[in-house]
Write a structure and sequence with these properties.
With 308 residues, this protein is α/β, with parallel strands linked by helices. It folds into two domains: 161 residues, 3-Layer(aba) Sandwich (Rossmann fold), CATH 3.40.50; 120 residues, N-(1-d-carboxylethyl)-l-norvaline Dehydrogenase, domain 2 (Orthogonal Bundle), CATH 1.10.1040.10. The protein is 49% helix and 11% strand. The protein is built from twelve helices and nine strands. Strands 3-2-1-4-5-6 form a six-stranded parallel sheet, sandwiched between helices. A three-stranded mixed sheet has the order 7-8-9. Strand 5, helix 4 and strand 6 form a beta-alpha-beta unit. Helix 7 crosses helix 11 and helix 7 crosses helix 12. The longest helix is centred in the middle third of the chain and has 30 residues. The model has no long low-confidence stretch (mean pLDDT 93).
């Protein structure tokens, strides 16, 4: 077991995901100091053993600083801004960024940090706050192997596994590929679920069979309550899914890789958005599919597990 107090950790960004991730590190016994723009959101983490910082510069003395904020612009602001971590001269050894940002922004941040002698690990994650609480978040990381080796015990503590995929921004591509699959799989799942219902099956019964079969996955199980009971509270919006599919298609064009099923899925997600399903979960693709199939779905009001 790694010594969880070996490094002083800093954490920036206490949104839904950031809170759950930082909480797991605090509970694992790490020496962690957290900062959030709205301090009150970070304060409950003190109960789990975290220290709550007033200023970003309070994190300059940490060995490893994690960032989990909204955009690439925010990452740059918290690191390099006039009140950023390094604004008073101190600097961490390693920065680990789990924010969803573009390859270009990631490379720009990496270059800027390299000038200061700081190593950068790009480490996007797969899952949401509920998945983190269940200990099933997965992490993909790219950057210097020596930095990965130092950080990996902490990434392991956040979830159920971390994959090192190489240098530079490769983890960003891995995450884009992952989210392309998310779109293609949910669309296919919606098509077959509507087919099963139109032929006379109940959705929960069909999905129960699917989840127990070789085709079932953590994802199909996790989406079963939404598809069964039509509870579409947001885990990921159609617009965010479209953005990631577009990034995947652009990468495919740049590298000469045909992605026909992805292209079709992109049009269906666009149709979903055009039909006004913007503030609900991307799994509302089920409703679009039902409409296109001439049936109206009703919640089955059956208690089904989400596999977590």
């Amino acid at each position: 077991m790694a010594n969880m107090k070996q490094h002083k950790l800093g954490w920036i960004g206490i949104g839904r995901m950031g809170y759950a991730m930082a909480e797991r590190l605090a509970k694992a016994g790490c020496d962690i100091t957290v900062w959030n723009r709205t301090k009150s959101k970070a304060e409950p983490l003190a109960k789990s053993g975290a220290k709550v910082a007033d200023n970003l510069t309070d994190l300059a003395g940490c060995d490893i600083v994690f960032t989990m904020v909204s955009t690439g612009k925010d990452v740059k602001e918290v690191l390099f801004g006039e009140n950023g971590v390094m604004s008073k001269g101190g600097k961490p050894e390693i920065i680990v960024d789990s924010t969803s940002i573009s390859l270009e922004e990631s490379a720009e941040i990496r270059a800027k940090l390299a000038e200061k002698g700081i190593q950068f690990l790009a480490s996007p994650v797969s899952g949401n706050a509920k998945v983190i609480k269940a200990g099933k978040l997965t992490v993909v990381a790219s950057g210097p192997k020596v930095a990965f080796d130092a950080v990996s015990p902490y990434l392991e503590a956040i979830g159920r596994g971390v994959s090192y995929v190489g240098d530079g921004e490769l983890s960003r591509i891995a995450k884009i590929c992952h989210n392309v699959m998310l779109g293609v799989v949910i669309q296919n799942l919606c098509e077959i679920t509507v087919l099963a219902e139109k032929v006379g099956m109940q959705r929960h019964a069909f999905l129960d069979f699917l989840n127990k079969s070789v085709m079932g996955s953590m994802f199909t199980a996790y989406k079963t309550p939404a598809l069964t009971n039509l509870d579409f509270h947001v885990t990921f919006t159609p617009e965010l899914l479209r953005k990631d599919i577009d990034l995947g298609l652009a990468a495919g064009r740049a590298h000469g890789v045909p992605m026909p099923t992805t292209a079709v899925t992109r049009d269906l997600v666009q149709t979903l958005i055009g039909n006004g399903y913007t503030d609900q979960d991307f799994s509302t693709l089920l409703l679009l599919q039902a409409k296109a199939s001439g049936i109206e779905l009703k919640p089955e009001n059956v208690e089904v597990g989400d596999g977590l």
